[in-house]
Write a structure and sequence with these properties.
It is built from 10 helices and 14 strands. Strands 9, 10, 11, 12, 13 and 14 form a 6-stranded antiparallel sheet that branches. A 4-stranded parallel sheet has the order 2-1-3-4, with helices on both faces. The protein has a 4-stranded antiparallel sheet with strand order 5-8-6-7, with no helix packed on it. Helix 1 packs across helix 8 and helix 4 (112-124) crosses helix 5. The chain folds into 3 domains: 3-81 and 287-313, Rossmann fold, CATH 3.40.50; 90-183, no CATH class; 186-269, 2-Layer Sandwich (D-amino Acid Aminotransferase, Chain A, domain 1), CATH 3.30.470. The protein is an alpha+beta fold and 314 residues long.
């Protein structure tokens, strides 16, 4: 039986929220695969394939080491998804740019996962983890205190405000290492804002465009969507450069070129109903076969590996 190990953070197991990987892994179980979740990075990964699913902007080294103990990995090389790591449109105070700009947190998802992990870790205070939990919590409290002192609120700029020009950006933003200023390059159609989403696992994907009346599009303000054909080659090259095996890219098309503004290795399903997301998950689950072929090539030829027998039956 093929064994797939999903490596998550000790403070954010896969079943804590509705992730795409949770729905996808359920499809693998129905297919007859064994799926286990590992949240202790010291665990020896005895699996045919390991998937890194740590919902933090920067993955701690201990989790990277854990997943890389397996010969075949998914997202084992995706260590940093901060805006500074993935955006090609960041601005510095001294840059010359006349268009609108948007202020974001450098950390993914407003830095909320890091804050939640610090809070839950301190509340748990597991044996042997008290010092780390305390340090994590103090770090997050320092971030919130600095944001309150600099910007008047600990939640300042978490809603990604758009400014008409660089001149309107508050001066304190430019020296805040937790924030970034990015060119605001929206896509419009029929008077609405658009965002294109490319969700992929291995060689399977789902490509769609979502419409909203708001410039910053989230799953709760979408007013329509349509399926799209294959993702543009330039975006596929960006995926290869960032070494993503599984994830979700949000982007716009501006002057015929893709503008990537968010790359997520632990995408959530959002507000979609099961009737809507399950067929997508079933399709994406088929992407595991591309990794099975890789695993089979790495496995010893004698005796015949279990993974080869399992792949032949599928």
């Amino acid at each position: 039986m093929l064994h797939i190990a999903i490596v998550t953070h000790r403070r954010a197991r896969l079943d804590r929220r509705l992730y795409w990987l949770q729905a996808i892994s359920g499809c693998w179980v129905e297919r007859g695969f064994r799926v286990s979740v590992i949240d202790d990075p010291k665990t020896r990964v005895a699996a045919d394939l390991a998937i890194l699913h740590v919902n933090l902007t920067t993955v701690p080294q201990e989790y990277l080491a854990c997943v890389r103990r397996c010969a075949v990995t998914v997202n084992g090389a995706v260590t940093d998804i901060s805006k500074r790591a993935i955006s090609a449109n960041l601005l510095r105070r001294e840059d010359r740019y006349d268009g609108p700009v948007i202020v974001k947190t450098d950390r993914n998802c407003g830095g909320n996962p890091e804050a939640q992990f610090a809070e839950t870790g301190w509340k748990a205070r597991k044996r042997g983890d008290i010092l780390r939990s305390a340090l994590d919590l103090l770090q997050e409290k320092r971030v919130r205190a600095r944001r309150r002192r600099r910007h008047g609120s600990p939640r300042a700029f978490l809603d990604y405000p758009v400014f008409a020009s660089m001149a309107e950006v508050p001066e304190a933003v430019w020296t805040d290492r937790d924030l970034v200023v990015e060119r605001f390059l929206p896509e419009r159609a029929g008077g609405r804002y658009c965002v294109r989403t490319w969700l992929f696992f291995g060689d399977q994907d789902r490509h769609a465009m979502f419409y909203s009346n708001d410039p910053v599009i989230k799953s709760n303000n979408i007013v329509g969507y349509e399926r799209l054909a294959e993702a543009p080659e330039e975006l596929q090259q960006i995926r290869r450069n960032l070494k993503f095996d599984f994830g979700k890219f949000d982007y716009t098309m501006v002057n015929g070129r893709p503008v990537l503004f968010d790359a997520n290795r632990t995408p959530g399903i959002g507000h979609f109903s099961k009737e809507r997301y399950l067929p997508i998950a079933q399709s994406l689950a088929g992407g595991i076969d591309s990794f099975l072929r890789d695993a089979a090539e790495r496995a010893p030829q004698t005796p015949q590996p279990v993974i080869e027998r399992q792949a032949a039956q599928a």
